[in-house]
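Encode chain A's predicted structure.
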Amino acid sequence: MTPSPLIVVVEDEEHLAHGLLFNLQAEGYRTHHEFDGDSALHYLLASPEAKADPPAAILLDCMLPGADGFTIVRALRAAERYTPVLMLTARSHPEDIFEGLDSGADDYLPKPFDLNILLVRLKSLLRRTAWQSPAKQPAEPQEAQDAYRFNRRTIRFDTLELIAPNRTTHLTVMEADLLRYLTDREGQIVPRKDILEQVWRVHEDTDTRAIDNFIVRLRRYIEDDPANPQHLLTVRGIGYRFIANP
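Encoded structure for chain A:
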């Protein structure tokens, strides 16, 4: 019998952590809890327990004693650990959202949050992971429907991969979602506010340059010369435009 998914909760607020653990267990998940960032890093990257029983997803507070959530996500991605991460952020700090996405988190949820929304977001991340399982890969016609090809590159939205001639890059959910949003509007100018609202679900008056950093990272994936982009262009003062065939 296949065990239920293991969800790691990294949260230092005791009351919130206990509530999350109780409700996750009520939903049938197995759970593991870490109170601080340093312990979480050790558990996720070095413990025999996590190696023998890898977590299916991580609920990660961005502000923690010791290593913060951003450091943890960066360390996981640097170690090529692509466990889905749902980051819990402070509602009053939108910059936390962008730093979390920039560090490699797959999704975010501002505090205070509705438990039902958290469970829906978690199930969505787990569903994407299941789709990437080799035993559940779609047949070839379906794969073709969920891929975008340009300039000897293929964006695989089903497996969250960008396949280039010399490398394959694992995408986060948010990276894949932004690439899908841009490629669906190939040739069109996409305003920054549309990306903020439609992809990242952040109000358009948020003052941040994190989206520019995000675009810089995507250019490293898709451009032959990221310093001289031909596909992902900046439209000064407005937003961006994706061009498949310059």
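The longest strand covers residues 85-90.
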